[in-house]
Write a structure and sequence with these properties.
The protein is mainly alpha-helical. The protein has 5 helices and no strands. The chain starts with a helix and ends with a helix.
């Protein structure tokens, strides 16, 4: 489970957060707390919740199943 979580967090960080103008802008655009975005970006032990993944998917206008296909799960 930890490897799956890490794969999810790394994908979100590399593909989306790092492409955003700022951590704050990513947080606002995805209805997340900026602290959550900082933890995704910087905390190697962060366990992302399904609710957070779902908020990001909704903001990106993709289904959860499509997200999992993107990251190879």
């Amino acid at each position: 489970m930890k490897r799956t979580n890490r794969k999810i967090v790394d994908f979100i960080n590399k593909e989306w957060i790092s492409q955003a103008k700022s951590l704050n802008s990513f947080a606002v655009e995805h209805s997340l707390d900026e602290k959550t975005v900082r933890r995704i970006k910087n905390d190697p032990n962060y366990m992302i919740s399904l609710e957070t993944i779902n908020k990001i998917c909704e903001a990106k206008n993709i289904k959860l199943s499509e997200f999992y296909k993107l990251i190879g799960l």
